[in-house]
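Page 47, continued from p. 46.
Same chain as before, 132 aa.
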Amino acid sequence: MPEMKARSLTDIVRRGELMSVDCPSREVLRHVTNRWGVLVLIVLKYGTYRFSELRYQIGGVSERMLAQTLQALEADGFVDRVSHPVVPPHVEYSLTSLGVEVADRVQALADWIETNFPLIAKEKALRAATAR
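Result:
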């Protein structure tokens, strides 16, 4: 059996223990993997956008949800928000280098889902039919 090395609470919190209920990285995971977080990261992967442009690109997102998602992703260090001092206010959003990394990974998952969606839909239909 491998020797267990004692770790300090600081080490545990810094590294994260995703399976632990108290893991701080779970909140970041939630921000990155929720529906709107995924879509914002994918859109911003391709450039800098104003709020209204992002909302247009992401069909169905409310202003409130988009604002909350952008704030969370900005707080996590994935999104840069630049406010230009003009009237009316001009705010632009883009990915940080860390944001580009996470967007690449999220894009890979989204691509896999899109590519395999016919199989997923078939399985879903089969399971629904057998559940009756």
